[in-house]
Amino acid sequence: MAAVLDVVRALFAPASTPAFVIDRETPADVVAREALLDRALGADRSKKSSEKVRKDRFPAQGLALVARDRVGHVIGTVRLWNIEAGVSREGQPVDALLLGPLAVDAAREGKGIGSALVRAAIVEAKKRGHGAILLVGDASYYERFGFFAKKARHLVMPGPFARERFLALELKAGWLHDAAGMIVASGRKFSRPAQRTVV
Ligand SMILES: CC(C)(COP(=O)(O)OP(=O)(O)OC[C@H]1O[C@@H](n2cnc3c(N)ncnc32)[C@H](O)[C@@H]1OP(=O)(O)O)[C@@H](O)C(=O)NCCC(=O)NCCS
Fold first, then answer.
1. Among 89, 13, 92, 57, which Cα is nearest to 186's?
2. Predicted structure pTM score
């Protein structure tokens, strides 16, 4: 029934409706987002070093975004996470963001949805006063947005990572200039319900 309604909605959508929109993620999107990530990145996605930064944390405020199709379905996702990007020369933690995962529904690839998600995330992060964004991903994709390995060269992920895939974008000039050391999660934690012991 839901599928029939979706077809009807699509048929009657005004011709001027854009093929997708970038929107804030809501709690109602979580199941669709997780299913999309499983399809795009596979079941091993939780074993990545980036997951150590995300585990049991909320994304950075206002920085969980989705792409929706004309009927509101989630067809893309990106989230950013609060981190400390090592410490400065004075020994102060350097606040930054870690981007990822980014994924787009395979049937919609190559239509600019991934780019729109990354650009919207950069704009929103800037607006919120963040100084830099880091990520682990393909340089050949992310360099177009200004992410480069050089900016992250004195930083390390908390686990195995490929140096050439560890990239950074400064939102404020020189933000990572003397940042060195390990990426540490600094986002708000959520508590898992305590496990009951059955006796
Ligand atoms: C990577 C991904 C998010 C791109 O989304 P998308 O909506 O297809 O991207 P866009 O339409 O904005 O950009 C398409 C362009 O990026 C290029 N591109 C896509 N993935 C790429 C990659 N991994 N490395 C280099 N270039 C890539 C395409 O060739 C295309 O190039 P063109 O503009 O010269 O034709 C999407 O393919 C995806 O979800 N992949 C699986 C999950 C994944 O790999 N996530 C990123 C982790 S690094």
1. 57
2. 0.91
Q: Give the domain 16-185 fold.
A: Aminopeptidase (3.40.630)
> Is the C-beta atom of 50 inside 6 A of ligand 1?
no
Atom of ligand 1 nearest to the CA of 111: 11
Domain boundaries, the chain: 16-185
Whole-number average pLDDT of the chain: 91
Tell me, what's the pLDDT at 8? 46
Q: Which segments in the chain show pLDDT lower than 70?
A: 1-16, 193-199
| Mutation pick for ligand 1 pocket among 122, 141, 165 (CB with most ligand atoms within 8 Å) | 141
Q: C-alpha 8: how far from its chain's center?
A: 32
pLDDT for position 74: 98
79 neighbors 59 (Cβ within 8 angstroms): yes
